[in-house]
Amino acid sequence: MYALASDGVIFGAFANVNERVQVPLLGLAFGAVVSSVLALLFRLNFLAEMVSMGTLVSYCFIGVDLFVLRYLHFAELPGDSPVQLRAWAANGFLARCVPGLARVRWLRRLFLAFLLGCVWLATTLSVIIKGTQLWRWAFLAPPGLALIFSGALLTAFKPYDVPGMYMSPGLPLAPLLAVLINVLLLSRLSIRSWIRFFCWLFLGLLMYILYGVKHSKAKSVDDYPDSNQDKAVKDSRPDVIGDQLADTPAADKDKTTSEPENEEKKQSET
């Protein structure tokens, strides 16, 4: 709640830190009151299912975000933009068998195929397979093959490391397995849990549309496209993003105006 209020997504009063105890008292008090009311009104299994649903969805999106951050950070790149492959893939039979594999469009398609394969596999396990007959398990072959094929090809791509960003070992297996496991666990929840989740999701989106869009502080980042982090990302992958950042005309102007001043200072010192 404190993080959301600090970003302006919810009411900023929840982010006010008390000077005496150095904690956001209003946010803590509001959270305690809401939790107490929910505990009094609903049963424990209802609350447990809601917590499980929210936690699994959050972890699933964390896996997706991690992959996008390390592989598909620049979504505005055209499909023909090159990406780096690992040494065993670039020099092996994989690059020869799949022409044009080192392109952004292949990376997007494979990741989308993996996500659809996860949903397909989870749906097959929860809806189609209800008995113990062996022939029912044959329905797992298509989504299983889609997951294996797309996941194996995704391991051929090399993630880019941004200076100053946190380390993330085990790419891309860690985010892909996180998405797969959480989607499978989500498929085991009841229909009522999904209905409740979408109701809460609707209320959250309504809150964001009516308040968060206007007061969010994240929109100020869009006003500075050439920030230090974006520059570090561009410099770390010149083969993907393009040439190194060049000096702007404004910077050249400042540079030319500063040279006479430096000469005057040197003459005054001598």
Automatic annotation (TrEMBL):
Species of provenance: Macrostomum lignano
Keyword Nucleotide-binding applies: no
Chain intervals for the UniProt region annotation (Disordered): 219-270
Keyword Transmembrane helix: yes
Alphabetized GO MF terms: amino acid transmembrane transporter activity
UniProt keyword terms in alphabetical order: Membrane, Transmembrane, Transmembrane helix, Transport
Lineage start: Eukaryota, Metazoa, Spiralia, Lophotrochozoa, Platyhelminthes
Segments forming domain Cationic amino acid transporter C-terminal: 166-216
Biased composition (Basic and acidic residues): 228-240, 250-270
One Pfam family from the record: AA_permease_C
Sequence intervals crossing the membrane: 25-44, 56-73, 111-129, 135-157, 169-187, 193-211
Name of this protein: Cationic amino acid transporter C-terminal domain-containing protein
Highest taxon of source: Eukaryota
